[in-house]
Amino acid sequence: MLLDKKEAAKYLSICTDTLMAELGGGRLVGFKIGYRWRFDTRDLDAYVDSKRQEASLHMSAAQSGKIKPVKIAGNAKSASSVWVPGMKIQDYARKV
């Protein structure tokens, strides 16, 4: 099934700006028919699966101890560990 830009964004529960950024970054597949972008639901499902696998890899690496949390300055009373979404595991581990 083909969806337009607004329908595809709703299907993924993201805004159209994020949809187009993912498309521009080559992380999402879409094509134009005339002047309008179209997205196949099979491609959208594959995109979600790839994001799910990426998240799973990050969680596995973190749980196995292959990477350590990054310490960043929080407020004056504490510091916290964070992994920034979209950050590569190598970059995350390098900051430790």
- Helix % is 40-55%
Percent of sequence in beta strands: 15-25%
Q: Write down the secondary-structure element order.
A: EHHEEHEEH
The low-pLDDT segments are 75-81
Shape: elongated
C-alpha termini separation:
45 Å
Strand order across the largest sheet? 1-3-2
List the total number of helices. Answer: 4
Number of domains: 2
Written overview of the protein:
This protein has 96 residues and is α+β, with helices and mostly antiparallel strands. It has two domains: 1-64; 65-96, no CATH class. It is 49% helix and 20% strand. It has four helices and five strands. The strands form two sheets. The chain has a three-stranded antiparallel sheet with strand order 1-3-2. The chain has a two-stranded antiparallel sheet with strand order 4-5. Strand 4 and strand 5 (79-82) form a beta hairpin. The longest helix is centred in the middle third of the chain and has 24 residues, at 41-64. It is elongated, with a radius of gyration of 17 Å. It starts with a strand and ends with a helix.
Can you tag this structure with a few keywords?
49% helix, 96 residues, elongated, alpha+beta
List the SSEs and their pairings.
Layout: E1 2-4, H1 5-12, H2 16-24, E2 31-33, E3 36-40, H3 41-64, E4 70-73, E5 79-82, H4 89-94
Antiparallel strand pairs: 1-3, 2-3, 4-5
Write a brief structural summary.
The chain is α+β, with helices and mostly antiparallel strands and 96 residues long. The protein has helices spanning 5-12, 16-24, 41-64, 89-94, and strands spanning 2-4, 31-33, 36-40, 70-73, 79-82. It has 2 domains: 1-64; 65-96, no CATH class.
